[in-house]
Design brief:
With 340 residues, the chain is α/β, with parallel strands linked by helices. It contains nine helices and 14 strands. The chain has two domains: 276 residues, Alpha-Beta Barrel (TIM Barrel), CATH 3.20.20; 56 residues, Alpha-Beta Plaits (2-Layer Sandwich), CATH 3.30.70.
Length: 340
């Protein structure tokens, strides 16, 4: 099965919540939704008002961590699977799409009922390879994304990695350590989503096809995400024929977690860097070529529109795929008549 969906809230949606976006995606005939963890604010506060409750029982916010003082007076994380005590410090995440874990779970249940497959995109500005404050902040945002992703039943959390630090080999080794650490703490075996690392659209950002394949080989709970416009940009426009798409899909499929995950739009690029995303019909990255290839693709795949036209282009991709599939069936039928 090939699922088609969007990244974010449908442009035509009147509501702006997670639940609204699931329902509206379904009403548009889409079967996948990449929820965006954007416009989030995290605050530390004394937990006195929450004492005696677990984080999932709190209505006012999404508590993503509980810090508790040890015998030496240091506050250490005890996670969210605990009853909050008066002297604890909680880290609260405020998100414009859901107020608490109940609303997250409600959206997840609705998606399951409507057969809309969920993924979650971590905050876009990530620099996990930074060895300072930004690296720690990015690591925490990815952890919180996994916690929220688990709450909604998302299959995967999509993330960028950040800028190269030192050589590409140094950056790869750092990425392996970082992703191994976080998947060790929040493992899919404990119900957390897989981490899906996105290919980059800039030469200075970690995420070439070779980077992602090497990373996925070393960290079993990480998969590569084919961001087609990004890959097209950094390779100077290499995705032009069916064989070009076959090469990257065949490589990434080795590491996919159930279904191969990809993001698509048109793109403008220059000198190996993405300039801006465009509507799918614009530019030299042609979905029609990919659609012709996918007619013979034998595995599950999810394609997410990240075009400025969002749901319009998600529906356009599905129409182009179905037309290509119909042409294949017509050719097959004509061949049978000739044999008869």
């Amino acid at each position: 099965m090939i699922r088609f969906g969007i990244a974010g809230i449908p442009l035509t949606s009147k509501g702006r919540t997670f639940v609204d976006s699931v329902e509206d995606s379904h009403n548009l005939g889409l079967t996948a939704l990449e929820v965006q963890l954007l416009r989030v604010n995290v605050e530390d506060r004394q937990a006195l008002d929450y004492a005696g409750r677990t984080p999932r029982e709190i209505d006012e916010s999404i508590v993503v961590n509980v810090m508790r003082m040890d015998e030496n007076g240091n506050y250490l994380s005890v996670g969210i699977d605990t009853v909050i005590e008066e002297d604890d410090i909680v880290q609260e995440l405020f998100w414009n799409m859901a107020r608490n874990y109940d609303e997250i779970a409600e959206g997840g249940e609705l998606a399951k009922e409507l057969d809309v497959q969920l993924s979650l995109h971590a905050p876009y500005y990530m620099d996990l390879l930074d060895d300072g404050e930004m690296g720690e902040k990015s690591f925490n945002h990815l952890k919180w994304s996994l916690i929220i992703g688990k709450g909604m039943g998302a299959r995967r959390v999509v993330t960028h990695t950040g800028f190269y630090k030192g050589t590409k080999k140094d950056s790869l080794n750092s990425a392996i350590k970082i992703y191994s650490r976080i998947t060790g703490e929040l493992s899919p075996s404990a119900g957390y989503p897989f981490i899906s690392v996105e290919s980059s659209g800039k030469a200075e950002i970690f995420g070439t096809a070779a980077d992602l394949a090497s990373l996925a080989k070393k960290v079993k709970d990480v998969e590569p995400v084919i961001n087609f416009p990004h890959l097209h940009s950094v390779t100077g426009g290499s995705l032009r024929e069916g064989k070009d798409f076959d090469a990257i899909l065949s490589e990434f499929k080795k590491y996919s977690k159930g279904d191969l995950y990809g993001e698509f739009s048109g793109v403008e690029y220059e000198e190996g860097n993405e300039v801006k995303l465009t509507a799918i019909k614009h530019g030299d990255l042609k979905f029609e070529t990919l659609a012709e290839y996918l007619v013979d693709y034998q595995d599950d795949m999810t394609l997410i529109s990240m075009s400025p036209l969002l749901e319009h282009d998600a529906q356009y991709m599905e129409v182009m795929y179905l037309r290509a599939f119909s042409r294949k069936l017509q050719k097959r039928q004509a061949a049978r008549k000739q044999v008869a």
